[in-house]
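Loading example: each entry is read as two labelled lines plus one structure line.
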Amino acid sequence: MDKKFYNNLIVSSSPHIVTNMDTTKIMSMVILAMVPSLLVSVYVFGMRVLVLTAVCIAASMFFEFAWNKLMKKQQTVGDLSAAVTGMLIAFNVPSGLPLWIAILGCFIAVIIVKQLYGGIGKNLVNPAITARIVLFISFATEMTTWPLPKALQADAVTGPTPLGILAEGNAADLPGNMIMFIGMHGGSMGEVSAVALLIGGLFLIWKKVISPIIPAAFIGTVFAFAAIYYAATGTGDPLQMGIFHVLAGGVMLGAFFMATDYVTSPILPMGKVIFGVGCGLITMIVRLFGSYPEGVSFSILLMNVLCPLIDNFCQKRMYGGAKK
Amino acid sequence: MSQKHLPSIHVHHYKHTAGCATEVMPVPDVVKISMSQHIGAPCKPLVKKGDYVKVGQLLGDTEAFVSAPIHSSVSGTVTGIEEVRSANGGKDTLVVIETDKQQEIYEGIEVPVANDLPEFVKAIRASGLVGLGGASFPTHIKFNPKNIDAVHTLIVNAAECEPFITSDHRLMLEDAEDLIAGCQLVMKFLGLSEGFIGIEDNKMDAIQHLDQLLAAKGITNIKTFKLQARYPKGAERVLVYEVTGKTMNAGVLPADLGIILSNVTTIAFVGQYFRNGMPLITKRMTVDGDAVARPTNVIAPIGTQIHDVIEFCGGYKQEPRKILMGGPMMGRAIFSDELPIVKNNNAILAFSKAQALVKEETACINCGKCHQACPFKLIPTALAKAYEMRDAQALSDLKVMQCMECGSCSYICPARRPLAFTNKLGKGVVKEAGIK
């Protein structure tokens, strides 16, 4: 090439290289991490699970796309955060939920909770959790009609969740912890299999997508609270009931996939501990003393609201910040 | 001994040129020697148009305390003194010399003799030496600390944590004798009892080479120190912590902790200068990037224009859209390849469109990766929000002034936010508000 001088160069501030791990890749990993649970759910509840999941993802992405189009904002549907929200909504409802209710949930999550507050990164609370609570309160019957695992369907096709059984005081009828761990019991479609959620959660921790602090604090608090409660009241075996409460309901799904939502959880490690412990405490208070059998979504929602305060409250320890 | 570490990130190394032995490039037709190649007052040209200058002859100097003299890298005729825009956008004066390719050595060049610290410091000043790792702080000031009796340790910064750059690596393989001699000189005159050469563990051949040489010479008070090959282990405050475990608080100098910390090229130059007496007139640098035909390591005369250096490396194989002086993490993007090489250049990187494009910024998702990446545990996302509000007090409380602009936060940000740049702007806000 001839000797040429170049004077039309891009001048920008350093650094001049960046990691290839962008928001879209992070969201893809979260979706990937939810696949094991989805597969177990299909096995347990049948093909309706796939229909519901597909509809929720499509609806959430459509709402995100349409809103940005309508408001002439930067198109963010490609970052896949709406897909994650849609998938989480599907995971948080019974597999037999009428599709229109699920779509309404997606609208609440994406438009009301996320976009009205400014879109990705600006929402105060977790969209999927909030949508679940709105649906739960508005459509109490549909949202608590729990299909039973196909393998267990004898005379009834629906029945109470393990936490529902517990709330009615029939502790003797609870499924064993091994069954709970694998996921052969009634519940929201994506929350039944603790082992599948654990695999997904550990994958995210291994890939450094999420920090282990919130899940560890959340699950640890649930276990400790339950163990202490049952030891103090003598109403059950502390170890067994501690494990039961960790495996039951939405604890695993909430701890690994929803309490760890970046936008609505604290940044600082100490804040993450407070956040996780808070989630665990509220969950157990609702379960053991409240009128609802399950408290995971309420706990995450309440802690979401506290998140800015927690981040402000935490002492920031910078390196060498001391005055000389 | 378990070593303590500050937070760091893994940055892809891109050390393509690690195996490229340094080539000495021939003297170009024209050199343009900057009068401002150091932190501090620029030099005044001591030559005028029409003067004939020789290699090593003094071209510029000043009375100012913080400064270093500048010497001619070639023999030839001064054809002009140019006022130009410098790489950082300020003003600069260039002495333009048409070379005669004879490389006639200036008569005054002689091997310096020093018997005590003041003589040593005087010789260092006369050599024009500045911190060659990037900061270009005049070395004769660093080697003359106020608390001379309290300093005890030499730390040589050979981390070379910037991606792409391998010039320090090559130096350790090719000029290890000068490096060790430089260490011994500095330690002797400053009364330092021990020396550590901090090298990242992606340069094991350099570590082994130095270890063997030190052992062969029977030197026991200078040791290599293996660092993790993570970014930014070569930052001053990070390196001090990694090597000694001591925390350098804000506003503290290494000398306050009894440490003289200097870049490996700087120290090796000391050895070289006391061997041949030639002032700082050439510089070893890595030339790389996907727009360069033949990436390699080059020793070029200071003042060589960048396009001449690239030309020596086979020219551009595709149109460059971004040219960097220095590495990709902290290096400066320059506006023209006509700018000349200065003392602290350790790399010239030319990127094509594919490598140079600035990625589109998206919304912060509050992931906290910037905080986890920051060696000083700052919270760049919070700083960015404070900057958006132009909140000087919040910026100051969040310690924006501590930011060393290493770029780890921007590198790691999944939303491609220019956090290091925002910090840089945030410092301006704090300074403007006069918050101490």
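Chain B has 14 helices and 17 strands.
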